[in-house]
UniProtKB/TrEMBL annotation:
Record-given protein name: DUF3793 family protein
InterPro entries from the UniProt entry: DUF3793
Pfam families in alphabetical order: DUF3793
Domain of life: Bacteria
Length: 202
């Protein structure tokens, strides 16, 4: 994508339009339904615009942390995210970090509250960064575990995340993410609202 396009859109004075473009640029795979969730930093002074920008999309969000004028915002579609969290492998993995119980149905709000608390503890330097967040972001579990076990080193390839398991499969996903971003940005530049770009995948 041309740097000029990104530079122009990020300097547009219309706050809602600029916020839409940021979300489309940084969350396209999620908006297009390829991922169950995504996360990004949003300026604190425009966070209040999120509700209006996302109206009619079926997308929910939670502010996980606020630091230095920036909000760390987690986006998800409740039904899809809840189904994902209740996969046995995901549930069992997250239970190792104090999220719910391995044998019980997972409550989305409780899980996100726990994630928020762990991120806040990290910000206070009470704990190491909660790298289990990769599981929340729909990264392959073997790659999340590999990253944690290796301290972020010794990966096979790097793209949208560090890959420790299946590089060929990961590269296919990276390509799908790139295509989603190109498609979403082109739709936005053609005049579509984020709700029209996202709802097709909801």
């Amino acid at each position: 994508m041309p740097v000029e396009v990104v530079s122009y859109m990020m300097t547009v004075e219309d706050v809602k339009k600029r916020l839409q473009f940021q979300l489309i640029l940084q969350c396209a795979p999620f908006l297009k339904g390829i991922k169950v969730a995504c996360i990004t930093n949003v300026d604190k002074d425009v966070c209040q615009e999120l509700r209006m920008v996302l109206a009619g999309t079926g997308i929910e969000y939670r502010i996980l942390a606020v630091r230095k004028g920036r909000c760390l915002v987690f986006f998800f579609r409740r039904a899809a995210f809840e189904k994902y969290l209740n996969r046995k492998d995901i549930r069992d993995f997250l239970s190792l970090y104090g999220y719910g119980c391995a044998g019980k149905e997972t409550d989305v709000d409780d899980i996100l509250q726990r994630l928020s608390a762990r991120i806040c503890c990290y910000s206070k330097e009470d704990i190491a960064f909660p790298h289990e967040i990769g599981a929340f972001l729909d990264y392959p579990l073997e790659d999340v575990k590999g990253f944690i076990d290796n301290g972020g080193r010794n990966c096979l390839i790097t793209g949208y995340w560090k890959v420790y398991g299946d590089p060929e499969k990961a590269q296919m996903i990276f390509l799908a993410y790139d295509k989603a971003k190109t498609s979403a940005v082109n739709e936005f530049l053609a005049g579509k609202h984020i709700r029209d770009i996202a709802c097709a995948a909801a």
